[in-house]
Design goal:
The complex is a heterodimer of chains A (about 170) and B (about 250). With about 170 residues, chain A is mainly beta. Chain A has helices at about 25-35, 135-140; strands spanning about 5-10, 15-20, 45-50, 55-60, 65, 85-90, 105, 125-135, 145-150, 150-155, 160-165. Chain B has a 6-stranded mixed β-sheet, with helices on one face. In chain B, strands 5-4-3-2-11-12 form a 6-stranded mixed β-sheet. The longest helix of chain B is centred in the middle third of the chain and has 20 residues, at about 155-175. The chains are: A mainly beta (about 170), B alpha/beta (about 250). The interface between A and B is medium-sized, with 28 and 21 residues. Chain A: It is an enzyme of class 5 (isomerase).
Chain lengths: ~170, ~250
């Protein structure tokens, strides 16, 4: 069975196609697909954009209002997948097993985000897929102008909007 | 005009460069990451290239118990282990000789050339090279004069704290305005500085846009990362200079 793919339609920029690794990150992929199918990511933004690091989104609507999310999921960062360039991983809070909807696309090899130990410091960030189409769209996002909005740094000055996220048939 | 030079003693193998930590009491995770870093880095010297502090209202702030005094203790402990160099940023340009002495740090000019293992590194905060932001550069020229600083520092500490808050709020408003200048380091100005310095690599912070930019003619501009340890994934990165060149090190 082939891996599921999700298209992120980015307003005025194009489509990013993500291939999700269901075998190595089953819980994370199921969680992500659930948010996709119930439309959670439609009209959300990439709110944290740092070239040379990662672009993060899926948690805020334009205007930086935070969207409600479901339950926190188990961190599958110990699945062997690495936070390499153009992989997609789950964001979270300080607690290792606290990811909900927010994800990020690595735009560099971020080895320091990989799992090293089952500890608060070492859990790392769970990679669950990779960009297989629209890398130029990702490159376009990481190049946008950013500034500070409220308590958030590195926020695009012009919203980078995910118009819709759809599971590719 | 010749830039000031620091010649690294032969015993220095590695030198760390950090900038833009924007330390403030409301961001304890970054303060903790910074302290942990200073406690453990194997570097033979550490250069802080501006905006260590989110705001600095005068060295007298560190004479009272509080955030500034705690930071002074961390810096003092770090400088007891290895030389510590401090360059002003646009947020903490009021850090003075008193605070530097108390922390055992050496204040360095912006820019400064570091000569390490035969390589000349031109170090800067970077704000002076963002030529498009003319309003800011006018402000910068004004606040870097001894007269302006003396007049400000003569005002009571609490008044300066209030003033700093309102300046910061105005600056945030300005950044939100659609006609804001989104300035970056000017490539011609950077090349000019590098030629004057007889160097090929400029390292700076300020813009929070970490990258390596090719400036042509064998010259390059290396941009340091800002720090934000409370964000997830977190951001706490240094640039380590050695005989092997410049290497980014992410802390976790």
């Amino acid at each position: 069975m082939s891996n599921p793919q999700v298209e992120l339609h980015i307003k005025d920029k194009g489509i990013i196609t993500l291939e999700l690794d269901e075998a190595k990150a089953p819980k994370t992929v199921a969680n992500f697909l659930e948010y996709v199918t119930k439309g959670h990511y439609d009209n959300t933004v990439f709110h944290r954009v740092i070239p040379g690091f990662m672009v993060q989104g899926g948690g805020f609507e334009p205007g930086m209002s935070q969207k409600p999310t479901g339950a926190e999921i188990q961190n599958e960062a110990n699945n062997g997948l690495k936070n390499d360039n153009y992989t997609v991983a789950m964001a979270r809070t300080n607690a290792p097993h606290s990811a909900t909807a927010q994800f990020f696309i690595n735009v560099a090899d971020n080895g320091f985000l990989n799992h090293t130990a089952p500890s608060a410091q070492g859990w790392g960030y769970a990679v669950f897929g990779k960009v297989v189409g629209g890398k130029e769209v990702v490159d376009g996002i990481k190049a946008v102008k950013t500034g500070r909005k409220g308590f958030h740094d590195d926020v695009p000055l012009e919203d980078v909007v995910i118009e819709k996220a759809v599971v590719k048939a | 005009m010749a830039f000031p030079e620091i010649v690294a003693p032969p015993a220095w193998r590695t030198v760390d460069l950090i900038s833009d930590l924007h330390l403030q009491p409301s961001e304890p995770a970054t303060v903790e990451a910074w302290q942990g870093y200073l406690d453990t880095t194997p570097a033979d010297a550490v250069f802080i290239l501006g905006d260590l502090f989110e705001v600095w209202v005068g060295d007298d702030a560190a004479a009272l118990p509080g955030f500034e005094a705690r930071c002074a203790e961390v810096l003092r402990a770090a400088s007891a282990r290895r030389p510590l160099f401090f360059m002003h940023g646009n947020r903490d340009f009021l850090v003075g000789a008193d605070f530097a002495a108390r922390c055992g740090m050496t204040l360095v000019a912006d820019p400064t050339v570091l000569l390490l293992h035969g390589e000349r590194w031109l170090l800067s905060h970077g704000d002076a090279l963002c030529l498009e932001d003319k309003d800011y550069l006018r402000f910068r020229a004004q606040v870097r004069t001894p007269e302006w600083q003396q007049a400000l520092l003569a005002r009571p500490l609490e008044e300066r704290r209030t003033l700093a808050r309102s300046v910061r709020a105005q600056s945030e408003d300005r950044k939100r305005s659609p006609d804001m200048v989104w300035a970056d380091v000017d490539a011609d100005a950077a090349r000019d500085w590098l030629r004057q310095a007889g160097a090929t690599s400029l390292v700076h912070g300020h813009t929070h846009r970490p990258a390596v930019h090719d400036l042509g003619d064998g010259m390059r501009r290396i941009v340091l990362s800002d720090w934000d340890a409370a964000a997830h994934p977190p951001r706490a990165q240094l640039l380590c200079l050695s005989s092997a060149g410049a290497q980014r090190v992410d802390l976790r």
